[in-house]
Amino acid sequence: MGTTTPPRTLAEALRARGDESLAGLLRARPDLLNPVPNDITQLATRAGTRASVVRALEHLDRFALQTAEALAVAPDPAPYGILLSLLTGDGLDDGEQRDDVGAAVTAALPGALATLREQALVWGEDERLRLVRTARELLAPSPQHPSPTGLGPTVAEATAGMSPGRLQEILTTAGLHATHDPVSAVAALSALFTDRTRMAELLDTAPVEALSVLDRLVWGPPYGEVTPNPTPPVKWLRDRGLLLPVSTRTVVLPREAALHLRAGRAHRVPEPAPPVVTAAAERDPQAVDRAAAGQAFTALSTVEELLKLWNGGGPAILRAGGLSVRELKRTATALDVTEPIAAFWVELAYAAGLLATDGESDERYAPTPASDEWLDLSAQHRWTHLATAWLPATRVPGLVGGQDAKGRALSALGPELDRSAAPDVRRRVLALFAELPPGTAPDPETLLRRLRWERPLRGSSPSGEGTDLRSRLALWTLNEAELLGITGRGALASQSRALLDEGENAAAARLAPLLPEPLDHVLLQADLTAVAPGPLERPLAETLSVLADVESKGGATVYRFTPGSVRRALDAGQAAADLHAFLAAHSRTPVPQPLSYLIDDVARRHGHLRIGAASAYVRCDDEAVLNEILADRRSTGLRLRRLAPTVLASQADPGSLLEALREMGYAPAAESAEGDVLITRAGARRTPPRTPPTPVPEGPPVPDDTLLGAAVRAIRAGDTAATVIRKEPAEGGPSSTTSSGSLPRTTSAETLATVQAAAMTGTAVWIGYVNAEGAASQRVIAPVRVEGGFVTAYDHTADEVRTFALHRITGVAELAEDGKG
Fold first, then answer.
1. 706-716 pLDDT, tens per residue?
2. Does residue 231 surpass a pLDDT of 80?
3. Which one, of 258, 195, 182, 193, lies nearest residue 224 by Cα?
4. Which of 18, 226, 518, 748 is most buried, judged by most C-beta within 10 A?
5. Would strands 610-612 and 669-670 be described as parallel, antiparallel, or unpaired?
6. CA 427/CA 416 separation, integer angstroms
């Protein structure tokens, strides 16, 4: 074709695009693919729906959004030159700095306009740019929804309901020729406000107070309230049309007048370039890596301690879900951290699939079977597991302690903590870290400014917890990355760069040399303590944690041996000889005599008393011990009675009886029904197999190239079926209805004959088809085989081979020889 006709609609503009451009639109706005549109017209309609346009606007950067906002207040359609002048101004108040901004805007505008075109928010040639109607409605000014630019309605819009007499009064007072034609009056007033010279002359006669009123309205909001008897400055402005009435008590500064006062600019400060993320400090990259590795090791230790804390069954679940405030505080105390940090560790373990609910009637949290597999991994792979679980998680621990939209408290592990924007913010924050040289810690304020520029409309949250959720997510990301060891001393570690760019194995390989090697020994001391000068191998750490209590943690861990801790080891099935051998094998110092005496003394008395179910009984070969228990006033509540010289019975349950006698200073052991000593082992409780919580997606996922290609082919095929030219039936031939938008109608015999002929000649035909659900559609098919009441054909609409029932075809028509027309 010699010339290209400018598109008249968005559908025509999309139809003129290439396949790669359509795929780019669907990639940028994946919501348009659900389901795949039947044709280009349906794609354009869906692209103009309010929900889809709002989602697209939310993903624009600051300057692309400013460009769309300028188009919303520009004439429709708007030439490129007018759009540029709205962003740069008319140049009459420019200084050197304004010239620099104008040059930056001029350079950046083509890219912003290309982004808007790609996302089908703007269409048309440069001389007739059109913002889609829904976006214009969202961004255009109104009393209920002021424009983001702060501009009010045009003179024509503001005077739509004004009487001709009032218009004449305004024209006369403003020094214009009065006219009885309202259209001419509006045009004359608009021409005055857009004429720089005449407007300047008018404002030169204005009182100083009137100019002050205009200064308050010029950058928005443009609406103001007036009394029935306005002040002289307001009356002066109103009489000359510089303030036009919206209601009996509200006036507005018309757009043309505001643009004159702004020197033609739609925005006070255009932002064509993203803010630069500056460095807060520059550190040695190796020191950053070491600091991050140390924090990563602390993170592993904390999560392991949390699993151990809830090993035998963790806290109960609230009726509404999650942890109670008291249980979170108890967990924080046990982990020796603050409650917000405890909430982070709990949520991280949950996101990694290491903690879950046990599903019992008395439902509690407990470690999952996957936690045992995680503990068997090397330290570096345990860390990569936690980090890769944190990156895509949509649950936000920082919200714990706040309130939801209904004023209910948000609890750790409870509902309402998912925020779909969280993964995008984490990834973007770390990407900005990665753009800086190694060892550079970014300035948080400039980083937040950059994030606000990239997604200016993504600050608010539908849950109502704040007006700048994205910034809060970014600040939480900074804190959580430092806690987890993603960053060290405020800078991104090299192992984290490897995790983002190369994957888990590369990150583990970078981290491994930086982690301390587990030790196989401790240092026993005479004061009944053991010092672990570093991390211990897992079997040693597990056995020692049963045999002794942790007294302090830090660079070295101090364990203390007590009668209770030794008894705990004996209850777990260890004999005194086993404990002596264990300590001798793993101590770099001789076993102190007081510790040996402590073990032997507790072991000598351990199991001397036996507790069983009678409801409960106490059995002991030494009658004097039983006599001593009966004589002790503290045993009154146990309601003991003698069954035999060596047996006492109690109405208390065995567990309560066991605990009570231990509190009285005895060392009883539990007994089975067969008379054997029961061995209790810590950490036996596990949930059934559980999958980690699924992140809540932020809209539909971005389709892959295969899906995009198939979708574009299907849309093109459907468009061919919808726009193809149908051949009119010959006079006297089979009758068919072929008007655009309606289904063809032919008799069964005519349908069969036509599709058989098409199958023999290999030509395509146009059919109307009603599926099993009763939905009617138009299709272009190329029949291949006709038999048994079915037509097998290549369906151009769906871009695949399908089988059609003949009795469901409403009619058939041949296509014109030029095909698509």
1. 878 878 887 88
2. yes
3. 258
4. 226
5. parallel
6. 22
Beta-carbon contacts of residue 676 (< 8 Å; ≥ 6 apart):
none
Distances (CA, A) of 621 to 600, 644, 645: 20, 11, 8
CA distance 193 to 422: 47
For 538-593, the pLDDT digits (tens) are 788 888 888 898 888 776 889 999 998 898 888 877 888 889 999 999 999 999 99
134-166 pLDDT, tens per residue? 999 888 766 666 678 889 888 888 888 788 888
Rounded to whole angstroms, how far apart are CA atoms 180 and 174? 16
Longest Cα–Cα distance of the chain, Å, equals: 125
Indicate the DSSP class of residue 247.
Answer: S
Three-class SS of 540-578: HHHHHHHHCEEEECCCCEEEECCHHHHHHHHHCCCCHHH
Separation between Cα atoms, residue 764 and residue 754, nearest integer Å:
10
- Rg of the chain on CA atoms, in Å: 39
CA distances (Å), origin 274, targets 62, 66, 123, 277, 455: 8, 13, 25, 9, 11
> Is the per-residue pLDDT at 343 higher than 90?
yes
Cα-flanking dihedrals φ and ψ of residue 756, to 5°? -65, -40
Question: Which residues touch 802 (CB under 8 Å, ≥6 apart)?
Answer: 781, 792, 793, 795
Tokens of 627: 């006599």
Two tokens at 13?
A: 């503009």
Asked if residue 693 lies in contact with residue 354, where contact means CB atoms within 8 angstroms, the answer is: no
CA angle 729, 731, 732 (to 5 degrees): 105
- CA nearest to 715, candidates 7, 26, 49: 26
What is the three-state SS of 42-107?
A: HHHHHHCCHHHHHHHHHCCCHHHHHHHHHHHCCCCCECHHHHHHHHHCCCCCCCHHHHHHHHHHHH
Contact between residue 451 and residue 470 where contact means Cβ atoms under 8 Å apart: yes
Count of CB atoms situated within 10 Å of the CB of 289: 26
The rounded distance, in Å, linking the Cα atoms of 367 and 346 is 11
754 - beta bridge partners?
Answer: none
Q: What angle do CA 535, 540, 545 make, to 5 degrees?
A: 85
| pLDDT over threshold 90, residue 668 | no
Distance CA 769, CA 256 (A): 55
List own/partner pairs for 782-787 with CB under 8 A and 24 or more apart.
Answer: 782/758, 783/755, 783/756, 783/758, 783/759, 784/759, 785/759, 786/752, 786/755, 786/756, 786/759
Distance of alpha carbon 800 from alpha carbon 787, whole angstroms: 19
Please, is 777 exposed, middle or buried when counting C-beta atoms within 10 Å of its C-beta (0-12, 13-18, 19+)? middle
More confident site: 818 or 815:
815
Nearest-angstrom CA–CA distance, 445 and 451: 10
Cβ–Cβ under 8 Å, residues 73 and 85: no
Nearest in space to 768 (alpha carbons), one of 722, 809, 739, 726:
809
Tokens representing residue 181 in the block: 């034609």
